[in-house]
Amino acid sequence: MIHPIIDELEKQYAGKLKCYKVSTDESASVATRYGIRSIPTVILFKDGEKKEAVIGAVPKSTLTTSIEKFL
């Protein structure tokens, strides 16, 4: 559901951010480490530090607003 939006944001912010998709089924330790309990969850990091988590299928505008706070 959210993959196309992430792909759009990756192109929109090329050179400013990197997007990674992780399967919590294949990487359960990542889900545990960051407390992911709902899918989809988008976690924003800056300088390797978790800054914000956006939980659920949200509109592109919501993700853009979150991203803009940390650029």
Automatic annotation (TrEMBL):
CDD domains referenced in this protein's UniProt entry, alphabetically: TRX_family
SUPFAM superfamilies linked: Thioredoxin-like
InterPro entries membership: Thioredoxin, Thioredoxin-like_sf, Thioredoxin_domain
Record-annotated Thioredoxin domain positions: 1-68
Keyword Disulfide bond belongs to the record: yes
MF (Gene Ontology): enzyme activator activity; protein-disulfide reductase activity
UniProt cross-references to Pfam families, sorted A to Z: Thioredoxin
Coiled-coil region: none
GO CC annotations on file: cytoplasm
Assigned keywords, A-Z: Disulfide bond, Electron transport, Oxidoreductase, Redox-active center, Transport
PANTHER family, per database record: GEO12009P1 (PTHR45663), THIOREDOXIN M4, CHLOROPLASTIC (PTHR45663:SF16)
Protein name: Thioredoxin domain-containing protein
Organism, as annotated: Rosa chinensis
